[in-house]
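Researcher: I've been going back and forth with a colleague about how Kazrin might be arranged in three dimensions. Neither of us has a model we trust, so I'd like an independent prediction. The organism is Orchesella cincta, in case that matters for your notes. Sequence below.
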Amino acid sequence: SGKVLLELSDSELESELGITHPLHRKKLRLAIEEHRNPALVRFPCIAELSHVWVSSEWLPDIGLPQYAEHFAGCLVDARLLDHLSKKDLEKYLGIALAERRRHCESDPLVWTNQHFVQWARSIDLTEYAENLKGSGVHGAICVLEPSFNGDTLASAMGIPPSKQIIRRHLSTELDGLLTPASTTLHTRSNLRFMFAPY
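Model: Here is an independent structure prediction for Kazrin. You can compare it with whatever you and your colleague have in mind.
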């Protein structure tokens, strides 16, 4: 019954109900706690975002579709996503965080907003670099959004349309940065499609 379920410990969920996967137990515990203490729920609508949404929509949207199978198998919904630890990500979901960190400097796909601020400084646009802070510009949107280009970035940086030479310089540098990343991403996608099971 619901009353019994509210009182079950993690070990009882495993031994008595056969829920062996640690993330499945964590997901159930979170849902139980939500019923026990509704006032503690930070995001009331989070329970509406299912594991299907996380694996089939959210991960591809942020440029990480390669992890969709792991997330789907672990039934990671938005509630569980909000409580995943680094250990969970590495041990159960196949995300090698240390490896991703090593690639951050060379792979603009995973660059944060701060990376783009630093990059703008490195290409002699320090005068406009600070305007990028809080602009929402980050690696995934730059690499994955087809309409994102030098003019888009120039506008985000507050470079006036009259500064054509600076805008041209920015576009050239941005193309040099993003073209290899887009090509690599496109190649990986094609390979996944070619070797996907029918």
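Researcher: What would you highlight for our discussion?
Model: I'd start with this: The two ends are 42 Å apart (CA to CA). After that, consider the following. The longest helix spans residues 164-194.
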